[in-house]
Amino acid sequence: MAPSPPETAQPVFRFAPSPNGRLHLGHALSALTNERFARRMGGRLLLRIEDIDRERCTPALEAALRDDLAWLGVAFAPQVRRQSEHFADYAVALADLGRQELLYPCFCSRQQVRLAVAAESARSSRAWPVDPDGAPLYPGACRGLDRAESAARVAAGEPHVLRLDMARALKRAGGSLAYAVLDPAGVARTVPVAPARWGDVVLARKDVPTSYHLSVVTDDARQGVTHVVRGRDLEAATDVHVLLQRLLGLPTPLYHFHELLLDEDGRKLAKSRNSESLADLRVQGATAAAIRERLGFPPLG
Ligand SMILES: [Zn+2]
User: Fold this and answer.
1) What is the per-residue pLDDT for 156?
2) I want to staple 16 with a disulfide (CB 3.0 to 4.6 A). Which of 48, 152, 219, 255 is the partner?
3) How far apart are CA 154 and CA 161, in angstroms?
4) Pick from 180, 167, 166, 175: nearest CA to 213
5) pLDDT of residue 281
């Protein structure tokens, strides 16, 4: 079993949006679900700004999202963690995995990966396996590169990403990887994980020297998060997070996955599809109480 946070400690929750667009109803649902759990369990709710993507995340969008959350009436603990201020922490985690010889540089472009996948599927006349998000698993061309040669290419400044060697990582982690998931009533059950279905995941890029997986695992531990409440779209990624927690010697929080809000076409709401933002709804005259009610949460007070 993964190490669990002590039962007596005050529960710590977090809501962790990215300031790369305006918040929509799906974010409101996630923030309110966190707030409800925290209130019921006497916990604290932290705000984390996930802004490692320095191209798409802007201070103006961060200010806007904090304004939206204040308008909605979600109260957070005063200290806010901004991921872009903690690249040093991610470097420490990466170096730890590097010392364990679980990382390797991958020089493949997206195009090269696509071609390798096509060649492999043609050769084996079978569909190449895909990860839970539907992306083809990395075929592994760079996994077996000579270490000295790889190091020389990295030193020469060749663009690359750092991948986790999944097979080695699983061997190192030593089996029985699991976490506890809470149902809406807060009752826990244990779920085994299967991180291998993600293949050799990317943990750092040259332009962004971390990744979603590495930074959330690092942040949850550094912030003392005991309960991770997030959408069902991130359920499968938890497999990778539990593996990284084991490899880095970090505690595994409890998890709860809330259902996702769907648009009229049955697709998950997304900033990229211009789902109606909370700001749009405000302009149209919606009140925070009406939004809370629409999402199934009692009014404030
Ligand atoms: Zn490669």
Assistant:
1) 96
2) 48
3) 10
4) 166
5) 94
Residues of the chain with pLDDT under 70: 1-8, 270-275, 301
**CB 286, CB 44: distance < 8 Å:** no
Structure tokens at 257: 């996955």
* Residues forming beta bridges with residue 230, ordered by sequence position: 257
> By C-alpha distance, which of 74, 83, 49 is closest to 278?
74
Distance (Å) from CA 105 to ligand 1 centroid = 7
C-alpha 140 – ligand 1 centre gap (Å): 6
**What are 124's two structure tokens?**
């084996």
**Cα three-residue angle 243-244-245, rounded to 5 degrees:** 90
| 297: Cα within 13 Å, side-chain hemisphere | 24
CA 217 / ligand 1 centre spacing (Å): 24
Backbone angles phi, psi at 103, to 5 degrees: -115, 155
Distance from residue 148's CA to the centre of ligand 1 (Å):
16
CB 211 within 8 A of CB 103: no
Token look-up 């932290």 returns: 46
pLDDT digits (tens, 9 = 90+) for 91-110: 999 999 999 999 999 999 98
Each residue of 163-216: pLDDT tens digit?
A: 999 999 999 999 889 999 999 888 999 999 999 999 999 999 988 999 999 999
